[in-house]
Amino acid sequence: MKTRRVLRALLLGACVCILIGIGLIVWLALRPVPAWSLPVRLAGISFNVPVADLLRAATHPYGMRLLADHSLPTRHGQLAFTEQDGRLQIRCGPCSAGSLSADASAARLSSLQLTIQRDGPAVWGTVTSSDITISWRGLLSDRRLLLTGELPDTPAATLYALFGEAIPELQHAQIEGSIGARFTLSLPDRRWQIQPNIRLSSVSGLGTASLRGVLPQPRCARPAPEGFGRHIAAAVIAAEDQRFWSHPGYDPVELAAALSPNARQQASLRGASTLDEQVARMLYTGAQRSAARKLRELLYAVEMERTLGKAQILQLYLALAPWGEGLCGAEAAAQHYFSKPAQALNAAEAAWLASLLRNPAQVGRDPAELNRHALWVLNGMQGLGRAERRNARLALTTDRMILRKRNSAPGPQLAERLLPLAEDSVIGQTPLAVISRAKRRDSAPAVIATGSHNENPFCCAEHGTRVGAGTGRRADGPLRDHEHSR
């Protein structure tokens, strides 16, 4: 009799559990989709599980015991779960640290460890990889997780080592300095902000000294025997890098903007990279959007500040920058649009030409917006007198500036415009052989500016020279003295 009662009770309990399970699955399948959830398929039924509930369950003492010694394959790598001293530990290695930006590639890490603790809505923990530890804290609700974290000042070489083969320069680069950061992150909407603290005191071993005194001459450019002139130099700085003369090759404000999801909106008014970094991109790293490329540019920018100096970095940019329609370099752009050398451009023409750097396709699509951006560039140009600035503004607002653009066949494709040396591409390598060939070309002038590397030779009369038309020489010829003019 007792045995029958026990069997009946067990059978009844099993039926109740089955009914509860079926009811739970039906409830999960039919209820409104949570704002932050993960799709799950069980017993042929698909439903969404709230992420906040999963986090609460995983960080509960019983949940941590259930997860302990289990692993889970994900698109980032194999996750291994353990529990230690009331903390949930998740190890991943090798691990792909997914980028928060949709158009940037992920970093490949040899190992990554995440610890999580929770007390009510408060969560905290650490993220560790090699010798680097990031501490974080957050608030968990049903709809979102708000996080704040800090990377303490860490040797820059240690951080760069995380990227391994993605940064080939690490094989021969000597990096001195530190990098730290504070960040905030909101999930699931991926709204985030970073405040970097970068102190790169020295970079060497990249071979940028081989560019000293040389202006490479790509096929899409034209030589500028008289230099580029002060107006186009001032306009390019106003359009692309307003702190060019004061930063050490990188601009933390612009770097934070470039690392954020709204970088494109911010870049609509100002360049996300310094001129140094853009020159590094054109000569060495290429244009692939990734964290590794940005870090490579940073190394080259810091070294070029020491080996080349501001004046020649500016000259390299003016000689190589892509201006659309198969053009590169300020001289080719000035001849194409105004039928005059870059040295002869007035302030309005230079501002209009520099405004093209943001989006050259606007010439035919939205000339009104292009003129508005040209006015913004003009307002940021240094070294203009009141009358000159007033006349330039009048020319841009009343369409008095006449474009003398010639009808021409389509120029080289974008890939060629981005390779500054065309047939002699030096992207990803030290251009020693290329520089040697460039020095033998009669069409490739190499201007060496006077003054120290940190001088702004076009803003101050006492320097006696101006960018692009100052005292200089060809790589294969004697020094030439050009008369200074303002």
UniProtKB/TrEMBL annotation:
Keywords attached to this entry: Membrane, Transferase, Transmembrane, Transmembrane helix
Region feature Disordered, mapped onto this chain: 467-486
Domain Glycosyl transferase family: 230-382
Spans through the membrane: 7-30
SUPFAM superfamilies assigned: Lysozyme-like (SSF53955)
InterPro entries: Glyco_trans_51, Glycosyltr_51/Transpeptidase, Lysozyme-like_dom_sf, PBP_transglycosylase
Biased composition (Basic and acidic residues): 473-486
Pathway: Cell wall biogenesis; peptidoglycan biosynthesis
Pfam families assigned: Transgly
Protein name, per record: Biosynthetic peptidoglycan transglycosylase
Taxonomic source organism: Uliginosibacterium flavum
